[in-house]
């Protein structure tokens, strides 16, 4: 399988947290088949420094930059152009996804950033879970802008407690 960023460069098999992924020896990008991402982020074998986690968190809520929106790379499996998206809607980590659900392309360090963000969110949920549950169970105030629905914050919190 060829790297979608580096034409004519073959992806090399690599064991990453017990999952076989395909990594480009040139650009260090990684191809993960559909389903492999969740296996990796659940393991927490790689330990990230607080500095790396802070750097990843600093990029949240920034949207998809114009150059990333215009970037189109082919799926290494089916060669169809992939869709660019902001992981978690607001993480600042811009990934490419195969439209046929073959997998995801992570540019250099993006897999690690996704892991660091996920771990930071899980750690925060563990620390503040009771506080968040209290917010969710409280009656909406008259100022509640999401009439009859959960706010985006409450929806995010629900991801950790469902």
Topology record:
Blueprint (H helix, E strand, L loop, with lengths): L11 E5 L2 E5 L6 E4 L2 H8 L6 H9 L7 H5 L12 E4 L7 E4 L5 E4 L3 H28 L14 H10 L1
Helix pairs in contact: 2-4, 4-5
Describe this structure in words.
The protein is an alpha+beta fold and 162 residues long. The protein has a domain at 12-120. The chain contains five helices and six strands; from the N terminus they run E-E-E-H-H-H-E-E-E-H-H. It has helices at residues 36-43, 50-58, 66-70, 110-137, 152-161; strands at residues 12-16, 19-23, 30-33, 83-86, 94-97, 103-106. Strands 1-2-3-6-5-4 form a six-stranded antiparallel β-sheet. Strand 2 (19-23) and strand 3 form a beta hairpin. The mean pLDDT is 79.
Throw out a few tags for this protein.
5 helices; 162 residues; globular; single chain; 37% helix
Concise description?
The chain has helices spanning 36-43, 50-58, 66-70, 110-137, 152-161, and strands at residues 12-16, 19-23, 30-33, 83-86, 94-97, 103-106.
Q: Tally of extended strands? A: 6
The backbone outline, from C-alpha atoms, is globular
- The overall pLDDT, averaged over residues, is 79
Name the structural class. alpha+beta
């Amino acid at each position: 399988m060829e790297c979608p960023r580096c034409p004519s460069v073959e992806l090399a098999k690599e064991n990453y947290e017990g999952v076989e992924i395909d990594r480009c020896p040139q650009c260090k990008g990684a191809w993960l088949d559909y389903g492999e991402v969740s296996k990796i982020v659940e393991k927490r074998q790689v330990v990230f420094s607080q500095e790396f986690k802070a750097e990843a968190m600093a990029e949240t809520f920034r949207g998809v930059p114009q150059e990333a929106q215009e970037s189109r790379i082919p799926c290494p499996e089916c060669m169809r152009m992939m869709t660019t998206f902001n992981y978690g809607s607001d993480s600042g980590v811009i990934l490419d996804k195969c439209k046929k659900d073959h997998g995801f392309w992570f540019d250099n360090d993006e897999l690690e950033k996704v892991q660091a963000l996920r771990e930071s969110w899980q750690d925060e949920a563990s620390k503040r879970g009771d506080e968040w549950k209290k917010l969710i169970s409280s009656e909406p105030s008259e100022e509640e802008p999401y009439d009859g629905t959960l706010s985006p914050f409450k929806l995010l919190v629900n991801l950790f407690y469902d």
